[in-house]
Write a structure and sequence with these properties.
The chain is mainly alpha-helical. Helices cover about 55% and strands about 5% of the residues. It is built from 15 helices and six strands. A two-stranded parallel ribbon has the order 1-4. It has a two-stranded antiparallel sheet with strand order 2-3. A two-stranded antiparallel ribbon has the order 5-6. Strand 5 and strand 6 form a beta hairpin. The longest helix has 27 residues. It starts with a strand and ends in a 10-residue tail after the last strand.
Length: about 350
């Protein structure tokens, strides 16, 4: 039985207040960056240990550690894709208290940032994408979009535009308040102590190996998140809106558990699926699993008609069903999102 969803089919749904053009990109001035040394050292530390673990392989982890790390990688990954992104940033579904707590724990396991800061930056990114106000403006190049934006002082426009972003829902959420108030403690426990300690305590894994393996897990999830800001804004197709810099990138989809259909996501950010296609999308299944438990409800989707009209009006012709041949729109296949 297909999940019950809240279909959005309002022609007046506000589209993003931006257009990316070649002229804007070419007109971007070179920046003089003020670096944040503490973050630079932090990133170098964990990535150096990750490279040491992958290249030199001091000792092979036990098979139980492989299973545990895969589980914890997914656990923390869902904190990004389902939690901080689709739930808190875009409100694409509603969650009952047990799911809110679980998503906050998953997000803390990723060890990235306070919920308030992450959501604010992401909402600014959507409203002012590829402008001076975009925290990780991809017009500044791959390195800046991938991780550079984290280690330099933000453009004053980011702070200025950030003041007009509505954060009332985040500020009023008790789970967010608890998470952000105890962020350092929760990160220490859920991102480091538990994933490192469990293999050592339960199956006598070597402490050094467990530590290195968790460094790899942490860095991998971090770079998967970064890939959405870099690869998914530079390499791929624009089947839903050719005027947006974000693209659909199947490789990013696989490493982020369904977040790589980024052109679709920027066209319909409220859709809990982040795509209308049937494809690799564990995050969609994760949300629907908790809907079946009664913990998630009011899942929002873009209607077939809304998607089709957008594709035919602004797409680049690469849509699988509603593309173009010689500039002539192809007839739409029926009911693509009824699954």
């Amino acid at each position: 039985m297909p999940p019950q969803t809240h279909v959005v089919d309002d022609a007046k749904v506000e589209e993003h207040a931006y257009m990316w053009t070649q002229d804007k990109m070419m007109g971007t001035e070179k920046k003089r960056y003020k670096f944040k040394m503490q973050r630079i050292i932090y990133l170098i530390f964990f990535h150096s240990l990750t490279l040491y673990f992958l290249i030199f392989k001091p000792t092979a982890p036990m098979w139980q550690s492989h299973l545990w790390t895969f589980f914890y990688l997914c656990f923390s990954g869902f904190g990004i894709s389902a939690g901080i992104h689709r739930y808190w940033s875009h409100k694409s579904f509603k969650a009952r208290m047990p799911l809110k707590v679980l998503l906050a724990m998953c997000f803390a396991a990723a060890g990235q940032e306070k919920i308030l800061n992450w959501v604010r930056d992401h909402r600014i990114h959507h409203k002012f994408s590829e402008t001076e106000a975009d925290p990780h403006d991809s017009r500044r190049g791959f390195i800046f979009a991938h991780f550079g934006w984290l280690v330099v002082q933000k453009n004053p426009q980011v702070y200025e535009k950030g003041r007009i972003i509505d954060m009332s829902d985040i500020l009023s959420c008790p789970v967010v308040s608890f998470h952000d108030r105890h962020f350092e403690f929760l990160r220490a426990i859920l991102c480091f102590a538990i994933p490192i300690g469990v293999p050592v305590y339960f199956w006598d894994e070597d402490l050094w190996i467990s530590f290195l393996y968790n460094c790899f897990r942490f860095a991998f999830v971090l770079n998967c998140t970064f890939a959405i800001n870099s690869f998914a804004h530079m390499r791929g197709t624009r089947p839903y809106d050719r005027n947006f810099m974000p693209v659909d990138n199947s490789y990013v989809t696989y490493v982020t558990m369904g977040e790589g259909n980024h052109n679709y996501h920027h066209a319909f950010p409220f859709d809990y699926r982040s795509t209308e296609m049937i494809c690799f999308n564990p995050t969609k299944s994760f949300i629907e699993f908790f809907q079946n438990l009664g913990w998630a409800f009011d899942l929002r989707v873009a209607s077939d008609d809304m998607v089709r009209k957008r594709v035919l009006r602004t797409g680049d012709g690469s849509h699988k069903f509603w593309g173009t041949v010689g500039g002539v729109p192809v007839a739409a296949d029926e009911n693509l999102s009824a699954y």
